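Sequence in, structure out. Go.
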Amino acid sequence: MTPTTRRNFIKVSAAAGGALGLGLFSEAGAEEKPKPMRILILGGTGFTGPFQVQDALARGHKVTVFNRGKTHPGELPKEVEQLIGDRNGQLDALKNRKWDVVIDNPTSVPVWVRDVAQVLKGNVERYIFISTISVYADTSKTGIDEDAPLAKYNGPDAMKESRDSILASKYLLYGPLKALAEQEAEKWFPKKTLIIRPGLIVGPRDETDRFTYWPVRIDRGGEVMAPGDPSDPVQFIDGRDLAEWVIRMVEQRETGVYNATGPAKTLGVGAMLEGIKAANKSNASFTWVNTDFLEAQKVAPWSDMPVWVPPRGEEAGMGRISIQRALTKGLTFRPLADTARDTLAWFKSQPAERQAKLKAGLSPEREAEVLAAWHKQVK
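Output:
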């Protein structure tokens, strides 16, 4: 895999302070019960969808999900209405129904937004589109905010692109097509669209292992290869924090565009790894291997060394995205220790065949090989 990292690889309860920022507490300090809403969640059974469902139900909303019924069947609470269909043309279950808001989780191609919008237009008041920070055209700069230019699609007909197209392009089309999907949402629901651009989403239920690698590897102990410099910044958001904030933004009837990653203050990869180690009481030791050596060894940032992107080159800004706009709307974060412990516990609860091979990060054999080469060089 080439060292050009993140884009090629993925191109995939609020604290009291946050609640105050959203106006969810009265002057007396008691939380005000939100007005119940009818929420349609497209997806709802994958990674963050179940957390959205749980939070919405807990806050008194009525939830309907629409999906193929193939991912984690049987996990939905009994209070949830499940509609079966497919974004690839099987939308009949959505016809002649009304909801206050729709949350679109799985869309990666603009035709999915167009087709569902044609069915839902006039039957929903607001459209929440879960996008990605991969939509930005230039990720070499730090402090990218929501007004930065977006990636351009240069193909013949974006409406003919599919998820297979994204896979075939090795995710090079992921950002441009997500950007067009955002525009499609705004086209069909003008001034009624809320666009959330998450960074790396982590925590329990994450099937990509793009953060999970570290709790699992550190728990194994021994010498752990750590990438770059301990001060290199990293950003990510626990899927539960993202889900909770989305539901609160729905309740506040917010529109506009928001980057959603974290934490609130700069976090170095060294502090992240040490925090994971402390949370899980590991005996691991870290050997820091610099970026140049990793490149020479063809160890790719983000995929082979998850979460981390070196603060130089065309993706230097991917660990320094601006989230000031979201912070003013009450986006909050649980402690890293909670995410680290919960992620490891979730992974250990999976079947043995799932635990046998992580989907991101280096294999033990490859890590040992690179570490041996590093030690030989520095002698």
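Check: The radius of gyration is 21 Å. Residues 174-188 form the longest helix (15 residues).
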